[in-house]
Amino acid sequence: MYMVYSNQTGVSTRKLVISSVKKAKYLKDRRRRAVLLRMECAFDAQNLISISLRKIQSSRTQRGGIKLHKNLLVTYVLRNARQFYMSKNLSPTPRTQQYEDVAAARETQEYLELTGSFTELANDFYCNFGGMDSDTWHCGAPQQHSSCQSAEVAHQDASACAMVPPSDSDLMVSESFWTCADKPAWESHAPSSQVNHKTVLDLDTHVVTTVTNGYFHSDCCAQPKQSLGAQWYAKKRRIDTSYHIVEPEFYLSDFGPVPCKRLRTDEDSHSDSETLDSTNISNLISVLGSGGLSEFVSWQHTDLEQIFASQTISLKHTLLTGSGWTRAIEAF
Amino acid sequence: MRLAQFLNATCVGHFESVMRGEAGTREFLKVECKVFTPVPSNTRSNLHSSTSHRQSEAAGSATTVLTVQGLIPLQRPPCPFPWTTIMAGVGDEIDEVQWCFSQVKGAIDDDVADADIISTVEFNHSGELLATGDKGGRVVIFQQEPESKNQPQCRGDYNVYSTFQSHEPEFDYLKSLEIEEKINKIRWLPQKNAAHFLLSTNDKTIKLWKISERDKRPEGYNLKEDDGRYRDPNTVTTLRVPIFRPMDLMVEASPRRVYANAHTYHINSISVNSDCETYLSSDDLRINLWHLEITDRSFNIVDIKPANMEELTEVITASAFHPNQCNTFVYSSSKGAIRLCDMRMSALCDNHAKFFEEPEDPNNRSFFSEITSSISDVNFSHSGRYMMTRDYLSIKIWDLNMETRPVETYQVHEYLRSKLCSLYENDCIFDKFECCWNGNDSVVMTGSYNNFFRMFDRGYRRDVTLEASRENSKPQSVLKPRKVSSGGKRKKDEISVDSLDFNKKILHTAWHPLDNVIAVATTNNLYIFQDKLN
């Protein structure tokens, strides 16, 4: 890997972790100091991940809409921090016994905090639900978007529709999903009936895409009812009651290499989703992890494109009306 | 003598008389001459020359008067710095430009209303007008008073000329999103008649404003009174012809065109073409070409949106038209690359004609490398040969003929490299600093934190850090250069990195196109500085 972080090679100049730096000052053993530095970097990585997630979360409620550029940069930081953490985990550094407990305790605490924020974030972003546990998930609380309000309603509808024993799942769930989702305003917020499915409607190109366990594959054009049978495949959804408390190791172990987006066939996705499911990880996090962190960015942004079907040609409008929505009405 | 040599090397044949000083003496004569560039070639006014010179006579017996007159040539000399300050002297002491406080505009309170935060600053092509836009959607235009006859050396002050609400907050019902009214950019159109035109844009809509003066009004209507009330036609017994009478000067701003609904993402730049008929607007993923007269359609000339949004790796951060070539424009990306496109090649300029990128230094790799390499501003030089890009920590000057690396790189605040983590936490790392050239492309300027701004002299390889604060706000008081100490030892008068105020940032600066006058915007105040004239 090409990652060479400046902190690893020299004296840490970060002021973030103050207490451990002060401790280091009293150390005479350079080896111990080096170990602490590496743990600081790991600590920073975790810290960075949680900070980044919080930033993404708060950007949803910011005035003026989601800033694509800033979110993209935040996902890069997330990716870098994640990669660093993975590389550190894969090549464990020798820890002296003396400091291991301290570091481990700190790390565990950070994990819990991290997963807490992760779960909130997942809640917010994915409006996820599931059969029996639909009440544990909800479509993220503080939303200004009325679209998400309606999504929440639809979410409940869909969950009602999907209230079948998991073993029965096949196409029926997806059909109900589409029925509930048949509203243009929040089409891209449509909750997925299967937690590892996510629907994205790009109104720029009128292509419906589904994301399965983080793997992206595009469906046909937006003729929802017709294309359903062929494209959607249901999965037996094992309700994992523990998924809202994510084991940190699972969280980390799911992180693959740098997000590589691939177009996969249905069969591949199907089998992959089964294997991933079996690792008992929260499906949201798996979507978030393996599919690339830019995923949720894109998910948010497809709904930005509702209106501008052909962006260069627009209607005549008077000077006085802010005609942002006249075109929208025209489009529908 | 050095002066003669210098002149011969740079501006051959353009100076009328030079008198030689006495060589060999200890006392020396310092002469500083400035020759300004002509107004841009696309205006109709004649080329004019403007020289100012100051001379200081050495103490002592041998004094020599040096007279220099300059005439702006019709063709620019081939050397890169044709118009720089010309120094002469037997000694080697070179006078630096001294910057003085001139004016400050804006409220004094520390409690800054969100709507008063200045978001853009722009001089017009003559430098007579200075426009600022703020977060509340307002545009304020300042006009420079003509030089008074009493003090010919003093430049006029900038006073408020016009204020208007350019953009209002909008609400997009379908997305349930508010569209901010913050003015992202203002660009002046070259002046063609008595009125002034500017383009102002927020995140989604661009507007063309006409600013005109009215100093007469018609009086003597038959059917209505002077105050506007309508008369009863039955009471009209005589007929008269309305005539124009002078009135107090009124400056009116009226929106002439509204260019809307062309951008899905947030508009970050607009740039007027040198043909004065078209302009481009860019958002995160697309660039559109507009005709100034036509509001209901625009051409999409760049589209970097991937078919699959998951594959998005970079966005457009800034774009600009070439100042002389109407077919060339550049756009910068969040990955630190600049693409130059030629509109003659194809209708959709997704394929660049030139690609400027400097390979990343692997030693500086960190978690935040992608953020610090993202370009926040790109600007062509007035000559059109160079362009300047600003990323978070540095300024790079590129020669358009060399794509592999910049010709010059200036570190603006390298001491922040070790602070990137904290800056990420408090969101300062996402600040988008702008940069600007001076009129003759010899000095570049940009802002920093703690209300510091920096100038880099390309010719003399000098840089200076100055501060915009109310403490140095006595008229004509010279600004003292500041220094930030990055190491452990802090010298007197230096500021340590930890005591910098990261809430006081200078993101927007502008340089008068023809003179050494600069406008520097702090959070809610606009400072105007000028160089010291004797």
Automatic annotation (TrEMBL), chain B:
<dbReference type="InterPro" id="IPR000009">
    <property type="entry name" value="PP2A_PR55"/>
</dbReference>
<dbReference type="GO" id="GO:0019888">
    <property type="term" value="F:protein phosphatase regulator activity"/>
</dbReference>
<dbReference type="InterPro" id="IPR018067">
    <property type="entry name" value="PP2A_PR55_CS"/>
</dbReference>
<keyword id="KW-0853">WD repeat</keyword>
<comment type="similarity">
    <text>Belongs to the phosphatase 2A regulatory subunit B family.</text>
</comment>
<dbReference type="GO" id="GO:0000159">
    <property type="term" value="C:protein phosphatase type 2A complex"/>
</dbReference>
<dbReference type="GO" id="GO:0072554">
    <property type="term" value="P:blood vessel lumenization"/>
</dbReference>
<keyword id="KW-0677">Repeat</keyword>
<feature type="region of interest" description="Disordered">
    <location>
        <begin position="471"/>
        <end position="491"/>
    </location>
</feature>
<dbReference type="InterPro" id="IPR001680">
    <property type="entry name" value="WD40_rpt"/>
</dbReference>
<protein>
    <recommendedName>
        <fullName>Serine/threonine-protein phosphatase 2A 55 kDa regulatory subunit B</fullName>
    </recommendedName>
</protein>
<comment type="subunit">
    <text>PP2A consists of a common heterodimeric core enzyme, composed of a 36 kDa catalytic subunit (subunit C) and a 65 kDa constant regulatory subunit (PR65 or subunit A), that associates with a variety of regulatory subunits.</text>
</comment>
<dbReference type="InterPro" id="IPR036322">
    <property type="entry name" value="WD40_repeat_dom_sf"/>
</dbReference>
<dbReference type="InterPro" id="IPR015943">
    <property type="entry name" value="WD40/YVTN_repeat-like_dom_sf"/>
</dbReference>
